Amino acid sequence: MVVFPIIIIVSFFMYFYYKIMILRDRDPLQQEIKNAKARIALGVCISFFGINQYLFYQTRLALFITIVFLFFGVLQGTGGVKRWIHYKGEFEKRATSE
Question: Which keywords does this Swiss-Prot/TrEMBL entry list (predicted)?
């Protein structure tokens, strides 16, 4: 299963990409949008890392660790999606009012 490590690596690099882009941006609203995207990428990375570890080891301990990783990954991902939708709407409101 080479797909899971590729997804993990791509999402890990996307997380760092968005975190670095936050530093380059001066607009606080765009910083929040990029931070939300970084949280989504982190959630995907954590979730797929947990799944990959379970598929690799397939033990009861790995299952419990996978459940914990999935829990935190889904929390990060859903929180990021909620923030992204909210701040994207705020950005569109600001763009139409100017």
Answer: Membrane, Transmembrane, Transmembrane helix
C-alpha distance across the termini of the chain, in Å: 49
Residues constituting the chain: 98
Task: Give residue limits of the domains in the chain.
Answer: 3-97
- Give Cβ neighbours of residue 54 (< 8 Å, ≥ 6 apart): 62, 63, 65, 66
Residue 60 has which token pair?
């009861």
**What pLDDT digit, counting tens, does each position of 12-67 carry?**
999 999 999 999 999 999 999 999 999 999 999 999 999 999 999 999 999 999 99
Say how far apart CA 67 and CA 77 lie, in whole Å. 15
| Contact between 66 and 53 (Cβ < 8 Å) | yes
pTM to 2 decimal places: 0.93
Determine the residue type at 28: P
